[in-house]
Amino acid sequence: MSEDEAKETNTITLQERLERDVSFSTLAGGNVEKTISFRGLDFKATEYVEDGIPLYRSVNGFTDPKFTMTNATLQINDGSGTSTLGVSPMGGEVQINATFPKKAFESTLYTTISNNDEYYHASVGSLEDNVYFQADTSYYHRSDFTLSNDFVPTSLQVTKKRVNSDNDQKNISVKSGVYLDDEIHLAAKASLTRAEYGIPPNVYTNITDPNAIVVWDAYTRIDRKDLNSFYLYGDYDTEDLQLSIRAYYDDYEDIFKVYHAPEYRSHLPVVTYDDARLGTVFKAIKTQNDHSSTFIFQAEENEHVRRGGGWDTAEYQADTFKLSLLHLWKLNSAWQVEGGMSATLMNSKEAAEANAIQSPENKKTFDALLKATYTDEQHTVYGSIAKKSRMPAMSEMFTFFPWDNANPDLKPEKSMQYTLGYKRNFTEKTLLNLSLYYYDIKDLIIYRTKTYINREEAENYGAELRLESTYFDKHLLSASYAYTHACDSEGEALEFIPLHQLKIEDSLDITKNLKVYLGYQYIGKRYSSNSATYSDEQMKLSAYHLVDTQISYQLSNSMQSRAGIKNLFDEAYEWRYGYPSEGRSYYLSLEWKL
């Protein structure tokens, strides 16, 4: 996914890009925010890696996919092969690859304004001899967003403007690097994010119920959220040997406020979450003739502190070590085989809490993968078998809210995964891609009755079909379809996974400077827990249809304009039970490059 593809629908964040792909589902993440996952395998099971560094995860395993994606392309690993950090994770991997300046001075100014929000981005870069510099800054603001005219008001949502849905986020990042010679590259990056936002309430919550334990859910805010990230890069690259080292440190804090009433003036005691992460990744790739061998070692320390809210201060720490060995063998011009093994050790503990429980035993997993691929001029066929695991997140093992019960002995979630794939170029202008998969999951981690538990097993299988064609002059047509079946051993559907997804797009070049885009997306029925009562009751979410359209015009060699409509027919739908989505949205964007 290139940056230009994202601009087809005025896409700003990583999440918005992935929501347009049938492989991904929208789920409920930390603080009932939207997040995204591959083939429905929970957002905690999908890995996000930026230039070899895994992105920061909060205490609940949540990677915030709302950060803006500029100067970067995306590569999606569906899990059928090895990935950046070894055997690919259960829910696939999203690789974020930053681009570099290509001349002595270049800059970009970008702004988009809609009836719901506004976004501004500026960047400047320079490449002089063997030294480069890149700086980016962005600002996103939303006071609220507009619901569909077909939305039926409730006692907590009486207007068409979504309650407590404001968002204010600022980001700045600076990266600089040097090529000491043709073989050695060194770089450093610093990124600072400041945000504050409201957490919209479930519109069906009964705030008059004196027995409800979740009345606070109606009036909560994050005020503020800070994330400071510092990365170091080192690369040594020769014809047959590649060495790389990555070092990373993240400092995170958010202040969670719970208010008495919808005026958001008087709040209960404030809860502060203060986290830190320190890690390193070493990677060596040796290539010889038709063989390529890779060794990867990753070490990471996570510290999490919760203080305030009338609770005792709680400190949690997890040290994780992962060792991976990968090998790729090209048997001949048509066949290649790749395999990998990864061993992971997690040592977690809880301390400094009055009612502290005994630290859990170390958690260990061993994963492996084998894949064979056949390729000729028109066809590619591949098959893979893999064992994969996911370590439980800190919030799944320990108590972060007073109404939850700890389960420090929670087992890692494991799966056996089988994949078959077929690709064909019918002509130079048409490409077909078919993928079939079956996941057999053991010790599924789910939330039930105030704690996280391991459910004995679950199965997730499906098919994905993609077609892309330029057969018709001046048209770029693409269509994709996904079918997913997912349920556990108790017969309950895994949450938020659409049974069917369909996406059809067309980009038409009317003139050299004028382009029109039209996109259609169908999301089938899904199931969500009754988050208005925090019960285990499963609620069926209705299917919905979205139509987006955009006109773009190249004003000059350096300036481009875009105008479009999202949700053209003002469809009313819920991404989670009790959480209505935006109605029709109009936007205008301008981009200037030098």
- Proportion of residues in extended strands: over 45%
CATH top level is Mainly Beta
Radius of gyration: 24 Å
Shape label: globular
Number of discrete domains: 1
Mean pLDDT: 90
CA(first)-CA(last) distance: 23 Å
CATH architecture: Beta Barrel
Give the % helix.
under 10%
Question: Main sheet, how many strands, which sense, barrel?
Answer: 22 strands, antiparallel, barrel
Unreliable stretches (pLDDT < 50, length at least 5) are 352-356
- Spell out the CATH superfamily: TonB-dependent receptor, beta-barrel domain
User: So how many helices?
Assistant: 3
- For this structure, the CATH topology is Maltoporin, Chain A
Structural class estimated from helices and strands? mainly beta
Number of strands: 34
